[in-house]
Amino acid sequence: MKILKFGGTSVGSPERMTKLLDIINPNEEQIVVLSAVSGTTNSLVEISNYFLAGDKKKGSECVENLYQKYKDFVIELLPDADFQEMGNEVIDYHFSFLAVLTNYIFTPIEEKVVLAQGELLSTTLYHIYLKSIGVESVLLPALDFMKTDEDNEPDIPFTTKHLTPLLEANKGNKLFITQGFICRNSFGEVDNLRRGGSDYTASLLGAAIMAEEVQIWTDIDGMHNNDPRIVKGTKPIAQLSFDEAAELAYFGAKILHPQSVFPAQKYKIPVRLLNTMEPSAAGTLITHDSEKGKIKSIAAKDGITAIRIQSSRMLLAYGFLRRVFEVFERYKTPIDMITTSEVAVSLTIDETGNLPKIIEELENFGTVEVDTNHSIVCVVGDFGSEKHGFASRVLEGLKHIPIRMISYGGSNYNVSLLILSEYKTEALRSLHNRLFE
């Protein structure tokens, strides 16, 4: 069985939703994971924000506006009167629920329920559409088998235990539809997966049933070897290892959330990134294998703050770095890059909400310097210790750009460089010319 995930743009209009059958083969065993219709989640967030702020009037107006959009959506998706009535019953049910919330105290618990409505709507409407054209499918409620534990981490054994009987009970069917993003938490409340959303759902399902393959369909033909918004002539990458894909995703490749494919990686399930708008494109295949002897791609991450702690006490002092890291741990602030010398340590963060408190504590260790408006440029490929020449080519490509930090050797897959954000565009283009032209 394969897992096919389609994002919001892939189901963003009735026309796009009907064209999914150009990709989905109803005669192959597949679980199709759908996101909410494009724009719906943003509207639901807006509705929740109004309700949380106590502005029920504006919240209700947003509910009505979204309802009218779905009324039009149903008319176009389901022209047959009988099936159109079924579609209207679905949207009436969900929007009546949203309207009723104006009569209750609205808390973050209700907020999660509101956000779940987008995926519940898209999957049910698509199931009805398939029925209207005579294609058999089974609608699987994700809330019956997707669950997180006490640490808000997905419970894959729970998914296996509760999904497998549902599949076996419908053994004669090949096409299953379910919701991405949504789940229940350890208290049984409606919740969501946060990181990676529907991509995460697809990866978790692939791991839970040991699928043949997970396919993530978006509006771009796989990961590219540079940012196509900035650099001309970028090309999709045919094959990446999970580690390489995670590096690229973390350092700026927006097509994939860095943690969304971890379950597939753990259970050795191949992941393929494909383009809904161009289904014949090869896309990018992500597996455990790494293609040796190649530089694969360049990515950049903005909004980086660099911190340097300089202290003579660091010299030969064991435990110094541990105490520095404990400061960031206390304030739940992840570190991106780190370099050290005998008298100083430099590191970067991209979450600055607790920066003043962090600086105050770090000043107990020595002099602290803070530089903002930086970007990390990450070059991903085969940088194993036995390789030579690749790192020098990277540095040669940036010889005319001031470099604040360099991180090399943390893994076999990347070289990361910190530069001022004003140089990012020039850096990406220069590296592309040096490494790929």
Automatic annotation (TrEMBL):
InterPro entries, per database record: AceGlu_kinase-like_sf, ACT-like_dom_sf, ACT_Aspartokinase, Asp/Glu/Uridylate_kinase, Asp_kin_monofn, Asp_kinase, Aspartate_kinase_CS
From what superkingdom does this record's organism come?
Bacteria
Per the record, the pathway is:
Amino-acid biosynthesis; L-methionine biosynthesis via de novo pathway; L-homoserine from L-aspartate: step 1/3; Amino-acid biosynthesis; L-threonine biosynthesis; L-threonine from L-aspartate: step 1/5; Amino-acid biosynthesis; L-lysine biosynthesis via DAP pathway; (S)-tetrahydrodipicolinate from L-aspartate: step 1/4
Q: What PROSITE patterns does the database record attribute to this sequence?
A: ASPARTOKINASE
Q: Where is the Aspartokinase ACT domain?
A: 377-434
Sequence similarity: Belongs to the aspartokinase family.
**What is the designated name of this protein?**
Aspartokinase
- Tell me what organism the protein belongs to: Pedobacter lithocola
